[in-house]
Amino acid sequence: MAKLIAILNVVAWAGFWAFGYLALTANGDSTGQLMTALILAVLGAGAGIWAYLWLVRHSEATGYAKPPRRAVPEQHRNPELYEDEENA
Q: For the whole model, what pTM was predicted?
């Protein structure tokens, strides 16, 4: 499944760049072509972002990549323990 999502990621970003270029270079006369290219570029970007984020989560979950360090202060983990100190 991960390989299929990786292929989708590459194809989606390729579509984004190709149709984005077509949207940017379209003449002002051809509004239909511009809108079609713009919609396809946005769909490519959305699919590319979704696939990339899925791959990142999958690689962290399977241990292929180390999860990022996330330091959470103790006050945010257990706020009920620190309510008295804030009111003092």
A: 0.71
